[in-house]
Amino acid sequence: MKNIFMLIIFLFCLFACPGLGEADEIIAEGSYNMGDGETPTVAESRALLNAKRAALERAGTYVESYTKVRNFQLTQDQIQVT
Does 2 fall in a domain? Predict the structure, then answer.
């Protein structure tokens, strides 16, 4: 009976976890004033870099977590924020 109960809890957690995350779309623009002696390719890559930087600033922080469980006991839990 205990094994069936644990199996039901495991399946519930397995199917409930994917619904926790939500994807957001971030759109950002970047600009760069091209100077003398620069190619359009360099200017385009620097504008792209500015757009990526603006998107990262708008997104906020990045959170990464690592959890290790052994025999249904929590042994290690790490959270890293950048």
Answer: no
